[in-house]
Design goal:
Layout (H helix, E strand, L loop, with lengths): L11 H47 L3 E2 L15 H23 L9 H20 L5 H19 L3 H23 L4 E2 L11 H33 L1
Antiparallel strand pairs: 1-2
Helix pairs in contact: 1-2, 1-3, 1-6, 2-6, 3-4, 3-6, 4-6, 5-6
Keywords: Cholesterol metabolism, Endoplasmic reticulum, Lipid metabolism, Lipid-binding, Membrane, Steroid metabolism, Sterol metabolism, Transmembrane, Transmembrane helix
Protein name: Insulin-induced gene protein
InterPro entries: INSIG_fam
Length: 231
């Protein structure tokens, strides 16, 4: 607790209560901030899932059984909540890892860069559905190059690359299991039950949500810096 000299008529007791309340106020603020960030990331994930999955369904890349389609976006009801939850977890995890490593990510920290990252991710997903290549291998290699280019342009951190690859592999495995159990299917699968370019799209999505989460976490970081400076 900070020791301060107070000469006012109220005595030192009031100042003592104010100092002891500061950590509690900071914890409440950080908890509220995390909840708000999680809700915003969830909303972004749901929106992107609806839009991008609609494109995949319209191009007959992804096929859902007729009995599970229940929305105007031609998607199974569980897809948007799952994508929203994953987006919130990824967006909260990235700044947490940065903090644990002791090296806050500072590369291109502005919303214009984040919006460009989102646009590139949407473009990669769009290319996976609409661009016609001679074979899936060429398409996969092209999307892999674009995904790594997205990481290099908007991230360039080893932690971001490692998390992106790890989460993309886990998401690919989960998708394989879903397709294997008949929840949905891909047309012309060439990588077991899915398309070979799917890990590239997952990787680009992880980097994108990580950048959004890092940008939102800046407000919490600035608040802590201001409180530390004031104290």
């Amino acid at each position: 607790m900070t020791v301060r000299t107070y000469t006012g008529t109220l005595g030192p007791g009031l100042l003592l209560v104010q100092d002891s309340a500061q950590p509690y106020v900071a914890r409440v603020y950080r908890t509220t901030n995390v909840m708000i960030r999680g809700a915003m990331l969830f909303s972004v994930g749901v929106f992107l899932a609806l839009v991008l999955n609609l494109l995949q369904v319209q191009r007959n890349v992804t096929l859902f059984p007729p009995d599970v389609i229940s929305s105007i976006f031609s998607s199974a009801w569980w897809v948007p909540p799952c994508c929203g939850t994953a987006s919130a977890m990824i967006g909260l995890l990235y700044p947490c890892i940065d903090s644990c490593l002791g090296e806050p990510h500072k590369f291109k920290r502005e919303w214009s860069s984040v919006m460009r990252c989102v646009a590139v991710f949407v473009g990669i997903n769009h290319a996976s559905a609409k661009v016609d290549f001679a074979n899936n291998i060429q398409l996969s290699l092209t999307l892999a190059a674009l995904s790594i280019g997205l990481w290099w342009t908007f991230d360039r951190s080893c932690s971001g690359f490692g998390l992106g690859v790890s989460i993309a592999l886990l998401a690919t495995l989960a998708t394989q299991l879903l397709v294997y159990n008949g929840v949905f299917q891909y047309t012309s699968p060439d990588f077991l039950y899915i398309r070979s370019w799917l890990p590239c799209v997952f990787f680009a999505g992880v980097i994108t949500m990580g950048n959004i989460g890092r940008q939102l976490a800046l407000y919490d970081y600035k608040f802590i810096q201001e409180k530390t400076h004031q104290d």
